[in-house]
Amino acid sequence: MNRHNQRPVVLCLSGHDPSGGAGLQADIEALLAQGCHAAPCITALTVQDTIDVQDFRVLDRDWVLAQAAAVSNDLPIAAVKLGMLGSLEMVETVLDIMSRLPGVPLVCDPVLRAGGGGALGKDEVGYALRERLFPIAGIATPNLPEARILAELPEGSADECAARLLPHIRHLLITGGHGAESEVHNRLYSRDGGQRTFICPRLPGNYHGSGCTLASALAGRLALGEALESAVQSALDYTWRTLRDAEAPGRGQYIPRRLPLDG
């Protein structure tokens, strides 16, 4: 039995998507692909498919705390990835969990809308994420529509949203791809004024779970000890490949192929 090459453990606090496209399944697959071990703790249950979300239910706070305690008391947590929280109470629950994991990097994927447009939490959840969780996170990975909600700038550019959000968080990766441009511009902003743009070719189609895939891959790269800017590049490259090879098992959006085919 090989006990010498232990994979880093990433605690995932996310919702469950029964279609398997997003949520915890996306986290698990993306982390496996990075060579990490995913420790998935369910924050919410959803009713959704590859088209859109119909409903959701946030789990009881005590259940989420118990899941996280069981994992963190047993496994060495190297990073934490946040996905869907869905309520103000769950934001506070995450704060309690992170208080027991000092120094562990936190990647926040501010899941506020499903890929099909359906809400996954009330607007005040975005405000609580910004005010309460961003200050303890190492990096957040909103797409531009999510960044506009968080910054309260309905028509804001990525630069304008970053200027509003960086007082709350050290690093911010605002992903593109929501316009008609032929290239996707993903922008990494740092509170110290640093900025870098990562450009990749735009792929046709719409994708379910791309944000979960990116944030989980980034958490995995950080858990492996990769420096932030390099980890962002690795996660973006990996995510682009999963979208290039995506499949459409249902009637809606494409699902990223996060694991290679056998053979």
TrEMBL record:
Its EC number is 2.7.1.49. SUPFAM superfamilies: Ribokinase-like (SSF53613). GO terms for molecular function: hydroxymethylpyrimidine kinase activity; phosphomethylpyrimidine kinase activity. One of its GO terms (cellular component) is cytosol. Residues 17-253 form the Pyridoxamine kinase/Phosphomethylpyrimidine kinase domain. It holds the Pfam family Phos_pyr_kin. This is hydroxymethylpyrimidine kinase. It comes from Stutzerimonas kirkiae.
